[in-house]
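hiii so um. not sure if this is the right channel but i have a protein structure encoded as tokens and i wanna go backwards to a sequence. like what aa goes where. can anyone help
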């Protein structure tokens, strides 16, 4: 089985979008009342956070591979 590289930025984006969907599903089901404009800062903030996590992950990977030599 081939292993893949973990992508924490995609994980963060997925969690935020699922959370937004759950909030609005609860609103539709009548469990609670969510204003329509809550999705805008939630999704925007979540995608910005996911971008920052992906950027930091990429920097760490490049830094780790740059320190290795051909004999390692």
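sure thing!! here u go:
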């Amino acid at each position: 089985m081939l292993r893949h590289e973990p992508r924490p930025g995609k994980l963060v984006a997925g969690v935020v979008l699922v959370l937004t969907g759950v909030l609005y599903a609860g609103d539709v089901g009548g469990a609670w009342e969510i204003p329509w404009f809550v999705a805008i800062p939630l999704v925007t903030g979540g995608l910005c956070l996911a971008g920052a996590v992906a950027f930091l992950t990429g920097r760490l990977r490049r830094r780790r591979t740059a320190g290795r030599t051909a004999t390692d």
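oh and The first helix runs from residue 8 to 29.
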